[in-house]
Amino acid sequence: VFIWVFSFIWTFPPIIGWSSYTLSPIGTTCEPNWYSGELKDHSYIIALFTTCFIMPLLLIFVSYGKLMTRLRKVANTQGRLGVARKPEKQVTRMVIVMI
User: Which parts of the sequence belong to the G-protein coupled receptors family 1 profile domain (predicted)?
Assistant: First the structure.
């Protein structure tokens, strides 16, 4: 439900006048007016990019950073550094590949 509401929030502003939609170059879909020189179009694109790309990416980085910190802490408290290092390295590699 959240993703539907979030999508509606970001598709609705061009309908009420903040930016606009144009026909895509291939002519099959509509898209935000990427190439307009107007301030309202630029501000919408910047807000859209920040909210829909940068903020989720930062959330992913912070979450994975906390996960890796917690894994290291658990490995150190268990005292099995030699045994715990291999799974820790595998998880670290997996996190890097996923990002």
Answer: 1-99
- Is residue 24 pLDDT above 60, yes or no? yes
Domains of the chain, by residue range, sit at: 2-98
Other Cβ atoms within 10 Å of 91 Cβ, number: 15
Mean per-residue pLDDT for 2-16? 91
CB 75 within 8 A of CB 85: yes
- Residue 9: how many other CB atoms lie within 10 Å: 10
Instruction: Report how far residue 55's alpha carbon sits from residue 63's, in angstroms, rounded to the nearest whole number.
Output: 12
Tokens of 47: 């807000």
Q: What is the pTM of this model?
A: 0.67
